[in-house]
Amino acid sequence: MSPTTAAPRRPARRPLRPEELGLGLEPVTAGAKDPVPRHVRAAVHGNLLAMLHHEAGSRTGEDPEDLHQLRVAVRRLRAVLKTVPGCVPGCPELRAELGWLGGALGPVRDLDVLIDRLREEAEDFPEEERAAVEALIAGLVTDRLAARRLLVAALNSARYRALLHALAEASRSPLPADPGPDLMHLVRKPYRKLHKAVLALAEDPPDEDLHRLRIMGKRLRYAAELAAPIAGRKVKALLKATKELQEVLGEHQDACVAEQEVRRLLAAQGEVIDWDLVFAAGRLVEREHVRRTRYRALWQGTWLTVERAAQPLI
Hints:
Elements: H1 36-60, H2 64-83, H3 91-121, H4 127-136, H5 138-156, H6 158-171, H7 183-200, H8 207-231, H9 233-267, H10 275-296, H11 299-310
């Protein structure tokens, strides 16, 4: 483990095991004939198991993928509870607490992505320019260590443990008498919002608008995952299309952020000119600008694929 990714040296609480929360080790299943609340229980149970599975790795930082998967599970839970808020008791409180946890996970993950991205971009630079890139991102590395301390503190907290227990209780709470809305309605609603947002875009939309589009596409994807057991191939096609849209818009957003951060980091160096650092920063900015332009040109084509895949479902 490198010094820049090591977990802070502080007492860590042992991650809870599923059985300590009264959870079965196998995910709860829901079929086509089951009511919506049963599908919600299955989603809560499965994502809670994923959180527990990836917690230890998120604490150590040895594999950034653990933190990524923990964050994805938290996001999926928030999306499910937002989509069908009446299906589990205490839904607003659960969403609020998941938002708190996501706020502790997000900065570390975002810095992981940004630092690794800039280092990968500089792999073919001359040695002196690679060293300049390391000097440029030194502040980001320090920020990541500070963010990791906050992350570990959150995972060690009684608040986090209480959230795990509340999610476990929600996953095994009695099903309400109301079977809830049609699952396909849960897909149509975020799709229509996304479709409306696309139609409202300017011909050359600002980067911020494309980022919002990505978030809306993510909500559609999570809703489609919830409905997958009843819609089969039709939803699988939509899931594939929305995933591609997310990837294209995600690459665009990552390039935007990386370009802005390199410019900020260079400006923060002050008036002392290190020409290797200036050259390295300029090359990084150029590469991210090219990447941003390339993915900006792709998003409309991927949206048309989403639109076609959604037609049989709406």
